[in-house]
Specification:
Blueprint: H1 4-12, E1 22-23, H2 26-34, E2 40-45, E3 50-56, E4 59-65, E5 76-79
Parallel strand pairs: 1-4, 2-5
Antiparallel strand pairs: 2-3, 3-4
């Protein structure tokens, strides 16, 4: 699970819908991060994939990638043990 405080902040920014999650490809996720001054990114390293979660303009965005993404220098990174993604 994502640490409670971080998960709460991301869900609270998702316009009140805890089941809303925008899934994008790794390239689009990186583009979103490049638009943000100091993005907060939750990262989970799985067996075959890296999972990433951030919030942009009130919506939570998620991607997974076989390769580790290069994050912007100003990114605040939370390395979580796991992540629960709605279906």
């Amino acid at each position: 699970m994502i640490p409670g405080i971080v998960a709460g902040q991301i869900v609270a920014q998702s316009r009140g819908s805890s089941s809303l999650l925008v899934r994008v490809g790794p390239e689009e996720f990186s583009k979103l991060l490049s638009r943000m001054k100091e993005p907060l990114v939750v990262v989970v390293e799985g067996d075959n994939y890296y999972h990433y979660l951030t919030s942009y303009k009130g919506l939570p965005f998620y991607t997974k990638s076989a390769e580790q993404l290069r994050l912007p220098g100003g990114a605040e990174v939370v390395n979580a043990e796991g992540m629960s993604i709605p279906d």
